[in-house]
Structure formats: structure tokens, C-alpha cells
Amino acid sequence: MVFIDLMFFFKSNNHYLDRDEISDYLPNKIDSSDEIQFSLLRIGAQDIERMVKLCQEYNREHPTEMWLIYDAQKNSFDSRYSYEGRYDKDEELLPRLEFEKWFEEVKENQL
User: Fold this and answer.
1) What is the largest CA-CA distance in the chain?
2) Does residue 100 contact residue 19 with C-beta atoms inside 8 Å?
3) pTM tops 0.85, yes or no
4) What gap in Å lies between CA 40 and CA 20, rounded to an integer?
5) What is d(CA 25, CA 42) in angstroms, rounded to the nearest whole number?
């Protein structure tokens, strides 16, 4: 069984925003309702499930963590993967806390 936890944030004009803050920051009104956000999360989770099945089909190890960064201005995509089962080894290590740590790291380093 694979547990999927998907989290995301935005950067706009050098402001880093959690998904709940995006509509308050942008000058043009967008639909950032919970329904839209959960749709994005559901689609992302479905993509991850397909990737895991594909890895299993080809008898390959699947990533346990992925950090994905899309730069809309540059139309570029950067990714980092981990295959280590860190959450299995440490009961106090939580995906949400790791996400918040990454979010802070990105903000501090202006990535």
C-alpha cells in the first residue's frame, strides 16, 4: 500500500504563498475555493498512483518523495526525488512538517 500526501505552494512577484493565501494576494480574482484546491490535489494523487503502478509494472522502485518546482515565467520544471523510506523509520517525522521545512528553505534561498 502506498500513502500519498500532496502539498503545494506558489511564488508570485517574490512572495511565497501557501495555497490558502493565493487568492488574497493576486490582483485578479481567481477561484481558489477548497473545491478547486482539492481537485488539484486529487489529480496530482491520481498521477502519483499511475506512476507507482508503472514502476511496479516494470519492477522498478518508486520514489517515496518528490519535490517538483514549475517556473511559469521560464516554462521550466525542476525536480528532486528520494527513494528512502524516511517516514517508515521515524514515527515523529511527518510529511506536513517536511513540507513546511522545504517551503521555508525555498523562501530563505529565494528559489
Assistant:
1) 48
2) no
3) no
4) 13
5) 24
Contact 17, 11 (CB under 8 A): yes
CB-CB contact of 56 with 62 (8 Å) = yes
- In tens, the pLDDT along 36-77 reads 878 888 888 898 889 999 999 999 998 888 888 888 788 888
Contact between residue 8 and residue 40 where contact means Cβ atoms under 8 Å apart: yes
- Cβ–Cβ < 8 Å for 53, 61: no
Copy the grid coordinates of residue 68: 517538483
State how far the Cα of 24 lies from the Cα of 105, in Å rounded to an integer.
23
Task: Write out the E strands in 7-84.
Answer: 9-12, 15-18, 65-71, 76-82
